[in-house]
Amino acid sequence: MSGVAVMGLASAEAMASVVDRHDDYRVLRRIRPMARFAGALGRGAGTLAGCALDVETTGLDHRRHSVIELAMQRFRADQTGRIVDVGPSFRWLEDPGVPIPAEITALTGVSDAAVAGKRICDAEAVCLILDADFVIAHNAGFDRPFVEARLPEAAGRPWICSMRDVDWRARGFEGRALSHLLSQMGWFYQAHRADADVTALLHLIDHRPFGSSRTMLAEAVGTAVRPGWMVEAVRAPFAAKDRLKSRGYRWDAVKGHWWREVPHGDFDDEFEWCVVAVYGGRAKPRIRRIDWTERYALD
Q1: Angstrom distance (rounded) from CA 137 to CA 141
Q2: pLDDT per position as a tens digit, 44-65
Q3: What is the DSSP letter of 100?
Q4: Which of 30, 191, 194, 249 could form a disulfide bond with 258, CB atoms 3.0-4.6 angstroms apart?
Protein backbone atom coordinates (compact mmCIF):
# COMPACT_ATOMS: atom_id res chain seq x y z
CA MET A 1 0.00 0.00 0.00
CA SER A 2 1.36 3.40 -0.98
CA GLY A 3 2.19 6.10 1.54
CA VAL A 4 -0.54 8.30 0.10
CA ALA A 5 -3.11 5.52 0.58
CA VAL A 6 -2.03 5.13 4.20
CA MET A 7 -2.39 8.85 4.84
CA GLY A 8 -5.85 8.86 3.31
CA LEU A 9 -7.47 10.73 0.48
CA ALA A 10 -8.16 13.84 2.54
CA SER A 11 -4.48 14.16 3.46
CA ALA A 12 -3.45 13.62 -0.16
CA GLU A 13 -5.82 16.35 -1.30
CA ALA A 14 -4.47 18.70 1.37
CA MET A 15 -0.93 18.05 0.13
CA ALA A 16 -2.01 18.58 -3.48
CA SER A 17 -3.67 21.88 -2.58
CA VAL A 18 -0.47 23.12 -0.95
CA VAL A 19 1.64 22.17 -3.97
CA ASP A 20 -0.93 23.67 -6.33
CA ARG A 21 -0.54 27.07 -4.70
CA HIS A 22 3.19 27.11 -5.49
CA ASP A 23 4.09 29.11 -8.60
CA ASP A 24 6.51 26.43 -9.84
CA TYR A 25 4.07 23.50 -9.77
CA ARG A 26 0.71 22.42 -11.16
CA VAL A 27 -1.36 19.55 -9.81
CA LEU A 28 -3.53 17.40 -12.08
CA ARG A 29 -6.37 15.43 -10.53
CA ARG A 30 -7.64 12.14 -11.92
CA ILE A 31 -11.06 12.32 -13.54
CA ARG A 32 -13.60 10.08 -11.85
CA PRO A 33 -16.95 8.91 -13.27
CA MET A 34 -19.53 11.66 -12.90
CA ALA A 35 -22.21 10.66 -10.39
CA ARG A 36 -25.14 13.09 -10.32
CA PHE A 37 -28.79 12.29 -9.80
CA ALA A 38 -31.36 15.04 -9.54
CA GLY A 39 -34.51 12.91 -9.40
CA ALA A 40 -37.60 14.63 -10.79
CA LEU A 41 -35.72 17.94 -10.84
CA GLY A 42 -33.36 16.64 -13.49
CA ARG A 43 -36.28 15.80 -15.79
CA GLY A 44 -38.15 19.06 -15.41
CA ALA A 45 -38.97 21.76 -17.90
CA GLY A 46 -36.02 23.72 -19.23
CA THR A 47 -33.59 20.81 -19.18
CA LEU A 48 -32.03 19.16 -22.21
CA ALA A 49 -31.18 15.48 -22.56
CA GLY A 50 -27.86 14.73 -24.21
CA CYS A 51 -26.09 11.54 -25.23
CA ALA A 52 -22.31 11.69 -24.91
CA LEU A 53 -20.44 9.10 -26.94
CA ASP A 54 -17.06 8.01 -28.23
CA VAL A 55 -15.89 5.31 -30.62
CA GLU A 56 -12.67 3.43 -31.16
CA THR A 57 -12.17 2.06 -34.65
CA THR A 58 -9.83 0.00 -36.81
CA GLY A 59 -8.87 3.10 -38.82
CA LEU A 60 -9.83 6.60 -39.89
CA ASP A 61 -12.14 5.94 -42.86
CA HIS A 62 -15.73 5.00 -42.00
CA ARG A 63 -16.13 3.57 -45.51
CA ARG A 64 -13.34 1.00 -45.03
CA HIS A 65 -12.87 0.62 -41.28
CA SER A 66 -15.05 -0.62 -38.43
CA VAL A 67 -16.10 0.32 -34.91
CA ILE A 68 -14.46 -1.89 -32.29
CA GLU A 69 -15.62 -0.05 -29.17
CA LEU A 70 -18.61 2.22 -28.51
CA ALA A 71 -19.32 4.01 -25.23
CA MET A 72 -22.38 6.12 -24.49
CA GLN A 73 -23.88 7.92 -21.51
CA ARG A 74 -27.10 9.89 -21.22
CA PHE A 75 -27.24 13.07 -19.16
CA ARG A 76 -29.47 16.07 -18.54
CA ALA A 77 -28.37 19.68 -18.27
CA ASP A 78 -30.12 22.77 -16.94
CA GLN A 79 -30.51 26.11 -18.70
CA THR A 80 -26.98 27.21 -17.76
CA GLY A 81 -25.52 24.03 -19.26
CA ARG A 82 -24.65 22.46 -15.91
CA ILE A 83 -25.08 18.69 -15.90
CA VAL A 84 -27.62 17.85 -13.22
CA ASP A 85 -28.37 14.20 -13.94
CA VAL A 86 -26.19 11.40 -15.34
CA GLY A 87 -27.45 8.00 -16.43
CA PRO A 88 -25.60 4.69 -16.43
CA SER A 89 -22.55 4.21 -18.62
CA PHE A 90 -22.85 1.83 -21.58
CA ARG A 91 -19.87 0.27 -23.32
CA TRP A 92 -19.70 -2.39 -26.00
CA LEU A 93 -16.87 -4.10 -27.84
CA GLU A 94 -17.41 -5.42 -31.36
CA ASP A 95 -15.54 -7.97 -33.43
CA PRO A 96 -14.73 -6.32 -36.78
CA GLY A 97 -14.27 -9.68 -38.47
CA VAL A 98 -10.68 -8.84 -39.42
CA PRO A 99 -7.48 -8.55 -37.36
CA ILE A 100 -7.17 -5.25 -35.52
CA PRO A 101 -4.03 -3.39 -36.69
CA ALA A 102 -1.22 -3.57 -34.17
CA GLU A 103 -0.97 0.22 -33.97
CA ILE A 104 -4.66 0.46 -33.06
CA THR A 105 -4.26 -2.10 -30.27
CA ALA A 106 -1.20 -0.21 -29.00
CA LEU A 107 -3.18 3.04 -28.98
CA THR A 108 -6.50 1.82 -27.55
CA GLY A 109 -5.65 -1.39 -25.72
CA VAL A 110 -8.42 -3.17 -27.67
CA SER A 111 -7.10 -6.51 -28.91
CA ASP A 112 -8.41 -9.26 -31.15
CA ALA A 113 -8.90 -11.46 -28.10
CA ALA A 114 -10.92 -8.76 -26.31
CA VAL A 115 -13.42 -8.34 -29.15
CA ALA A 116 -13.68 -11.98 -30.26
CA GLY A 117 -17.39 -12.82 -30.63
CA LYS A 118 -18.50 -9.45 -29.19
CA ARG A 119 -21.17 -7.21 -30.72
CA ILE A 120 -22.78 -3.85 -29.98
CA CYS A 121 -26.36 -4.10 -28.72
CA ASP A 122 -28.05 -2.19 -31.52
CA ALA A 123 -31.39 -1.77 -29.75
CA GLU A 124 -29.87 -0.19 -26.63
CA ALA A 125 -27.48 2.04 -28.55
CA VAL A 126 -30.14 3.30 -30.95
CA CYS A 127 -32.58 4.02 -28.12
CA LEU A 128 -29.97 6.05 -26.23
CA ILE A 129 -29.49 8.25 -29.27
CA LEU A 130 -33.13 8.59 -30.31
CA ASP A 131 -34.28 9.44 -26.78
CA ALA A 132 -31.81 12.33 -26.47
CA ASP A 133 -32.31 15.91 -27.64
CA PHE A 134 -28.80 15.83 -29.13
CA VAL A 135 -25.68 13.70 -29.40
CA ILE A 136 -22.31 15.14 -28.41
CA ALA A 137 -18.79 13.92 -29.15
CA HIS A 138 -15.45 15.66 -28.93
CA ASN A 139 -14.66 15.10 -32.61
CA ALA A 140 -18.09 14.64 -34.14
CA GLY A 141 -16.69 14.82 -37.66
CA PHE A 142 -14.99 11.50 -36.89
CA ASP A 143 -17.49 9.83 -34.56
CA ARG A 144 -20.75 10.63 -36.35
CA PRO A 145 -19.96 8.97 -39.71
CA PHE A 146 -18.83 5.79 -37.93
CA VAL A 147 -21.88 5.72 -35.64
CA GLU A 148 -24.40 6.34 -38.42
CA ALA A 149 -22.74 3.82 -40.72
CA ARG A 150 -22.94 1.23 -37.95
CA LEU A 151 -26.36 2.30 -36.60
CA PRO A 152 -28.29 3.74 -39.57
CA GLU A 153 -31.55 3.67 -37.56
CA ALA A 154 -30.07 6.45 -35.40
CA ALA A 155 -29.12 8.73 -38.29
CA GLY A 156 -30.39 12.28 -38.61
CA ARG A 157 -30.30 13.35 -34.97
CA PRO A 158 -28.90 16.73 -33.89
CA TRP A 159 -25.16 16.51 -33.21
CA ILE A 160 -22.75 18.76 -31.32
CA CYS A 161 -18.96 18.76 -31.51
CA SER A 162 -17.35 19.93 -28.29
CA MET A 163 -14.09 20.47 -30.18
CA ARG A 164 -15.44 22.70 -32.96
CA ASP A 165 -18.60 24.21 -31.46
CA VAL A 166 -16.70 25.98 -28.65
CA ASP A 167 -14.29 28.83 -29.29
CA TRP A 168 -11.61 27.44 -26.99
CA ARG A 169 -9.00 30.02 -27.93
CA ALA A 170 -11.36 32.86 -27.00
CA ARG A 171 -11.81 31.14 -23.63
CA GLY A 172 -8.06 31.21 -23.00
CA PHE A 173 -7.25 27.60 -23.93
CA GLU A 174 -4.45 26.37 -26.17
CA GLY A 175 -5.23 23.57 -28.61
CA ARG A 176 -8.44 21.57 -28.87
CA ALA A 177 -7.44 17.97 -28.07
CA LEU A 178 -9.59 16.52 -25.28
CA SER A 179 -6.69 15.53 -23.03
CA HIS A 180 -4.92 18.86 -23.55
CA LEU A 181 -8.01 20.93 -22.75
CA LEU A 182 -8.65 18.93 -19.61
CA SER A 183 -5.04 19.22 -18.46
CA GLN A 184 -5.44 23.00 -18.64
CA MET A 185 -8.48 22.59 -16.37
CA GLY A 186 -6.40 20.52 -13.93
CA TRP A 187 -7.52 17.00 -14.89
CA PHE A 188 -5.96 13.87 -16.34
CA TYR A 189 -7.37 10.50 -17.43
CA GLN A 190 -6.64 7.35 -19.43
CA ALA A 191 -7.21 8.50 -22.99
CA HIS A 192 -8.12 6.38 -26.04
CA ARG A 193 -10.60 4.12 -24.31
CA ALA A 194 -14.15 4.94 -25.29
CA ASP A 195 -15.70 4.86 -21.81
CA ALA A 196 -12.87 6.95 -20.31
CA ASP A 197 -13.23 9.46 -23.13
CA VAL A 198 -16.96 9.79 -22.45
CA THR A 199 -16.32 10.46 -18.76
CA ALA A 200 -13.70 13.02 -19.74
CA LEU A 201 -16.13 14.63 -22.19
CA LEU A 202 -18.77 15.07 -19.49
CA HIS A 203 -16.29 16.85 -17.24
CA LEU A 204 -15.11 19.01 -20.15
CA ILE A 205 -18.55 20.29 -21.14
CA ASP A 206 -19.56 20.78 -17.50
CA HIS A 207 -16.66 23.21 -17.00
CA ARG A 208 -17.72 26.75 -16.19
CA PRO A 209 -15.15 29.45 -17.00
CA PHE A 210 -14.22 31.83 -14.22
CA GLY A 211 -16.72 34.66 -13.99
CA SER A 212 -19.30 32.98 -16.21
CA SER A 213 -22.68 31.57 -15.22
CA ARG A 214 -22.74 29.25 -18.26
CA THR A 215 -20.78 26.10 -18.97
CA MET A 216 -18.94 25.04 -22.09
CA LEU A 217 -21.94 22.87 -22.95
CA ALA A 218 -24.18 25.95 -23.04
CA GLU A 219 -21.79 27.61 -25.47
CA ALA A 220 -21.61 24.47 -27.64
CA VAL A 221 -25.40 24.16 -27.79
CA GLY A 222 -25.75 27.84 -28.65
CA THR A 223 -23.32 27.44 -31.54
CA ALA A 224 -24.73 24.16 -32.80
CA VAL A 225 -28.37 25.23 -33.02
CA ARG A 226 -27.56 28.12 -35.35
CA PRO A 227 -27.92 27.10 -39.00
CA GLY A 228 -25.15 27.85 -41.44
CA TRP A 229 -24.27 27.55 -45.11
CA MET A 230 -22.19 24.85 -46.72
CA VAL A 231 -20.04 26.38 -49.43
CA GLU A 232 -18.61 23.79 -51.81
CA ALA A 233 -15.95 24.94 -54.27
CA VAL A 234 -16.87 22.40 -56.94
CA ARG A 235 -14.39 22.21 -59.86
CA ALA A 236 -12.25 24.92 -58.33
CA PRO A 237 -9.05 25.64 -60.30
CA PHE A 238 -6.00 23.82 -58.95
CA ALA A 239 -4.20 27.16 -58.65
CA ALA A 240 -6.73 28.24 -55.99
CA LYS A 241 -5.97 25.41 -53.55
CA ASP A 242 -3.62 27.45 -51.34
CA ARG A 243 -6.11 30.31 -51.12
CA LEU A 244 -8.89 27.87 -50.21
CA LYS A 245 -6.78 26.14 -47.59
CA SER A 246 -5.69 29.39 -45.96
CA ARG A 247 -9.33 30.50 -45.92
CA GLY A 248 -10.28 27.44 -43.87
CA TYR A 249 -11.67 25.20 -46.61
CA ARG A 250 -11.21 21.45 -46.25
CA TRP A 251 -10.61 18.92 -48.99
CA ASP A 252 -13.15 16.11 -49.46
CA ALA A 253 -11.16 13.36 -51.17
CA VAL A 254 -14.25 11.29 -51.93
CA LYS A 255 -16.28 14.07 -53.55
CA GLY A 256 -13.22 15.77 -54.99
CA HIS A 257 -13.85 19.35 -53.90
CA TRP A 258 -13.05 21.92 -51.23
CA TRP A 259 -15.75 22.89 -48.73
CA ARG A 260 -16.37 25.13 -45.76
CA GLU A 261 -19.33 25.85 -43.50
CA VAL A 262 -19.91 29.51 -42.69
CA PRO A 263 -22.38 31.13 -40.25
CA HIS A 264 -25.53 32.60 -41.70
CA GLY A 265 -24.36 36.18 -41.22
CA ASP A 266 -21.07 35.56 -43.08
CA PHE A 267 -22.63 34.01 -46.16
CA ASP A 268 -22.69 37.05 -48.49
CA ASP A 269 -19.02 37.88 -47.88
CA GLU A 270 -17.95 34.24 -48.31
CA PHE A 271 -19.93 33.75 -51.50
CA GLU A 272 -18.47 36.92 -53.03
CA TRP A 273 -14.93 35.94 -51.99
CA CYS A 274 -15.29 32.49 -53.52
CA VAL A 275 -16.69 33.81 -56.81
CA VAL A 276 -13.87 36.37 -57.17
CA ALA A 277 -10.84 34.76 -55.50
CA VAL A 278 -11.45 31.16 -56.57
CA TYR A 279 -13.33 31.31 -59.85
CA GLY A 280 -12.24 34.73 -61.10
CA GLY A 281 -15.86 35.68 -61.70
CA ARG A 282 -16.37 32.88 -64.25
CA ALA A 283 -18.27 30.46 -61.99
CA LYS A 284 -19.74 30.21 -58.51
CA PRO A 285 -19.65 27.68 -55.66
CA ARG A 286 -22.41 25.26 -54.82
CA ILE A 287 -24.27 26.25 -51.65
CA ARG A 288 -26.78 24.65 -49.34
CA ARG A 289 -28.23 25.45 -45.94
CA ILE A 290 -27.13 23.16 -43.11
CA ASP A 291 -28.18 22.67 -39.48
CA TRP A 292 -27.16 20.46 -36.58
CA THR A 293 -29.12 17.47 -37.90
CA GLU A 294 -26.76 17.40 -40.92
CA ARG A 295 -23.53 18.88 -39.61
CA TYR A 296 -20.68 16.34 -39.25
CA ALA A 297 -22.79 13.66 -40.99
CA LEU A 298 -21.85 11.05 -43.61
CA ASP A 299 -22.61 13.27 -46.57
Answers
A1: 9
A2: 667 999 999 999 999 999 999 9
A3: P
A4: 249
